[in-house]
Design goal:
The complex is a heterodimer of chains A (239) and B (352). By secondary structure, chain A is α/β, with parallel strands linked by helices. Chain A contains nine helices and ten strands. Classes of the chains: A alpha/beta (239), B mainly alpha (352).
């Protein structure tokens, strides 16, 4: 059964069509990677799935329900968690408080109920030593980790990751891959936008290629990377 | 995995908590010790403090910079006069009507003003306050544009006045001031305690999250627009109560005074800005400085306003987080701590 299904979803800003008739299904428990050149509309696609943007046309189904017009806050409560490409921490709150607010509201429970879970997520994402530091004082790398940690605090069933591996050293990237694998193994469905291809392909089961707001390929990573269109459009620019 | 706990208390806050109880106790018995002039000054300080705390809740915690709070002061005040003059309600009981009237006005105000952002929101609230003033000035039963006074009989028979007369052996007029003062003290203490409580609940965290980043807050399950509504309605209710009380003590009202943008919003913003926006301590320090300045500069006429303005500008340029912000940055002091510190687990060995 698919946890997420997009049917002919479109979004325009003024005359610019950023998402153009996108349709695809994500089975429960899958890890799907999304690639595509800069400006292909990847982050916009995420915003449509999370409800931070509303689509102009088409339908979005999550967990069997039509959520096309459901606001972001409701979708989060139903289990859609996300990280932002440009980190959006709550700057005046500490790292721990960033997670607590996500935990208490995203799971619709009390602060006390999520304290331990938030602390454990901070351990897992190697942010525990920074727990009591205001998020505004974090370095970029730590901000990216906080994005992941905060998304996890909401206890998502579907986790959307937007370029969280960029700028990491090899060792850091390896530990991030391990963390994401563990999350995936625990049953969370993952959709991951990433430019660091080796990180992506070592986790995901399928790849989706986006260009000019259209899906130009979806399938097994090896196959996708071999296809002529992808090589022309994507690798031609990236390599 | 190791067990973690959360603490908010700091050693300084415990000491301060005790001091606060003592100061509040002293303020309660003050009417038996100090003269009537001092009681009137304290009444002014406490009501301005209440207004400042609610404006700070709106702007400092909710990110809603309103310059139309005089709408709720005026609405509360006029509701009190209307309830006493037209319905014959006891003035003390009518204070509750003040709060409710302000709350009712806040619903359409928020409905319109929330469509506006930033500076547009500020001006929008001001416009709504002016419209309310002009409308109230048409209300002939409470004196129209020239205003009116509370009936003498209602003031004399006001609930609690006689008891104070016999208790402290003072005349009726002084007893009324003392009654108003005690109500102002109760309101200020309840306001500070209530806001502090709110900030320590999970709604307080949500409020901070929405202020820092509304989009991200929505993405972690926070209902951002609901938080704004809560803050706006709570502030309007409290501001209305304060407005009713202020004019109960004055016993005379006019639309221009009750809806004065200078008295009920500009001074209040000054208090919050010089004390430190976004903190509970800030307005407390701010109101004391404001009162001192007002007493010192009382004889200088319009120079007084210019000096206030200059001080305001200087603070905004050189200490944008206000005097308390400056002090708290240097010393790490928090008298009303809301920070949830993670302790135990990996931290326990470091902290012993």
């Amino acid at each position: 059964m698919s946890i997420l299904s997009l049917q002919n979803v479109s979004k325009s800003f003024e005359s610019l069509k950023v998402t153009d008739g996108v349709s695809f299904d994500v089975p429960k428990g899958e890890a799907l990677g999304i690639i595509g050149p800069n400006g292909a509309g990847k982050s916009t696609l995420f915003n449509l799935i999370t409800g931070n943007l509303m689509s102009d046309n088409g339908k979005i189904f999550y967990d069997g329900r039509d959520v096309t017009r459901v606001p972001a806050m409701r979708r989060c409560l139903n289990g859609v968690g996300r990280s932002f490409q440009i980190p959006q921490p709550f700057e005046k709150l500490t790292v721990f408080e960033n997670l607590v607010v996500a935990g208490a509201f995203g799971r619709d429970t009390s602060e006390a109920e999520v304290t331990q879970a938030c602390a454990e997520i901070l351990e897992r994402t190697e942010m525990i030593d920074r727990a009591n530091v205001p998020a505004g004082q974090l370095r970029l790398l730590e901000r990216k980790r906080l994005e992941l940690a905060r998304a996890l605090a909401t206890d998502p069933k579907l986790l959307l990751l937007d370029e969280i591996a960029g700028g990491l050293t090899d060792a850091e990237c390896q530990s991030l891959i391990q963390t994401i694998r563990d999350i995936h193994k625990s049953g969370v469905t993952i959709i991951w936008i990433e430019h660091v291809l080796h990180a992506l392909t070592s986790v995901v089961e399928r790849l989706l290629v986006l260009d000019f707001g259209r899906v130009i390929g979806i399938g097994e990573p090896g196959e996708i990377m071999e296809s002529r269109e992808v090589r022309e459009i994507y690798l031609g620019i990236e390599v | 995995m190791s067990t973690y706990t959360v603490t908010t208390r700091t050693p300084a806050s415990t000491v301060f908590g005790l001091c606060a109880v003592i100061v509040t106790g002293l303020l309660v018995v003050a009417p038996a010790i100090v003269g009537r002039g001092m009681i009137q000054d304290l009444f002014f300080i406490l009501t301005m403090l209440t207004l400042a705390q609610f404006w700070n809740l709106l702007a400092g915690y909710g990110g809603l910079v309103s310059v139309g709070q005089q709408a709720f002061v005026g609405m509360g005040a006029y509701a009190l006069f209307g309830a006493v003059i037209l319905l014959g309600l006891d003035p003390v009981a009518a204070i509750l009507v003040s709060g409710i009237a302000a709350l009712i006005l806040a619903v359409p105000t928020a409905y319109f003003a929330f469509r506006l952002q930033g500076a547009y929101f500020a001006i929008g609230t001001w416009v709504i306050a002016e419209v309310t003033r002009l409308s109230i000035a048409q209300w002939k039963a409470v004196g129209g544009g020239t205003g009116t006074s509370l009936p003498r009989s209602a003031m004399r028979e006001m609930w609690g006045v006689e008891a104070i007369e016999t208790l402290l052996g003072v005349r009726s007029s002084a007893a009324r001031d003392i009654l108003a003062y005690w109500l102002a003290l109760a309101l200020a203490v309840a306001t500070i305690a209530g806001i502090y409580w709110l900030l320590r609940t999970k709604r307080g965290l949500a409020l901070a999250a929405v202020r820092d980043n509304a989009e991200a807050a929505k993405s972690v399950g926070v209902d951002a627009s609901r938080m704004k509504w809560i803050v706006f309605l709570v502030s309007a209710f409290g501001t209305g109560l304060a407005g009713g009380l202020i004019y109960l003590q004055k016993a005379r009202i006019s639309p221009d005074a009750a809806f004065s943008v200078t008295d009920w919003t500009a001074y209040v913003i000054f208090i919050v800005v010089i004390g430190g926006i976004g903190t509970i301590e800030g307005p407390i320090i701010g109101v004391l400085i404001f009162f001192l300045l007002q007493s010192l500069l009382a004889d200088f006429g319009s120079w007084y306003l210019m000096i206030l303005g200059l001080i305001g500008i200087a603070i905004m340029l050189f200490a944008p987080r206000g005097l308390w912000g400056l002090l708290s940055e240097r010393t790490g002091l928090h008298l009303f701590p809301i920070r949830r510190r993670l302790t135990g687990g990996r931290f326990s060995d470091k902290e012993t």
